[in-house]
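Entry 14. Ran structure prediction on the chain below.
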Amino acid sequence: PLPRPEPDVAPSSARARGRLSKPELDLLETTTVMFRQWDAQCGGGLRRKAVVGQLHEVTDLLQEPQPEAATKRLFKVAAELAELAGWMSYDVGLQPTAQKYFVLALHAAKEAGDRPLGSYVLSNMSRQMIHLGRPEDALELIHLAQYGSRDCASPRVQSMLYAMEARAYANMGQPGRCKRAVRMAEDTFAEADEWDEPDPDWIRFFSEAELYAENSHSFRDLAYVAGRSPTYASLAEPLMKRAVELFGQEGGEHQRSYALNLIGMATVHLLQREPEQSTVLATDAIKAAKKVRSERVNTRIRKTVDTAVRDFGDIADVVELTERLAIELPETAEAV
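Output, structure tokens:
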């Protein structure tokens, strides 16, 4: 049986009874898609408790006898909700909580027999390891994801895994392997439109914009690891610029990704010793950050501004940026 998530919100006192109908299962799946859209638009802080509450309801339903097909669908819903709860927890800075939900999601994906979904959960665990400064662990998780889904993942899923492999290699300071993984991500993504079956909703976020974003961040990370290399920063710049353009054209559908890539572009300009351009992008990032509730976004903005102050603190645009940050994005505890 699937272990119940730890109750960081109180579950409903009314436990579901009886068998689920097909319309009820359809509604659960539709609700999960809606939660995922909200997360992309608003960040993890706004709807996390709703996702956790829905996850509790689904785990309650799994304690009841259901037909085999319904049970499999329920496990898949549980896996997607647990993954989303983990992702939202990661986004607002609750790292240990995020890891618990990711593990729960892995268990549920295994019970559902959905190996591509399991690989997606592992990729997000890998992303968290990169965030925590553990790229070797990130690489191990990605290789596990690639091995587990090697004969069943769509090109879009495989491309996403290669992009995350590149991020891990970049943070390990291995440019040759990073560049190879970037090329594999690009080549595999080019096959996505030829795939016969529709991709599941959880991977649809991995668009052309997201591909550009991931690969640009790999080169940006390489630049930092290589001692602020202008060569790798110049590789990151056109990809990051394209990612910003594409996310900006979406009209807020992926507002958090737009903010993160504005920040990324600001850091690239700092690496290229162009502080004035960096402050313009950082200002835009602050405006975008105010539209989402994501401590991850806020933290990256603060780190970028700190870097600007350290390297170019005597420039008027940088001074003005620090004042703007203090007023518009004060450092307070995120409400979760």
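The two ends are 29 Å apart (CA to CA). Will compare against last week's run tomorrow.
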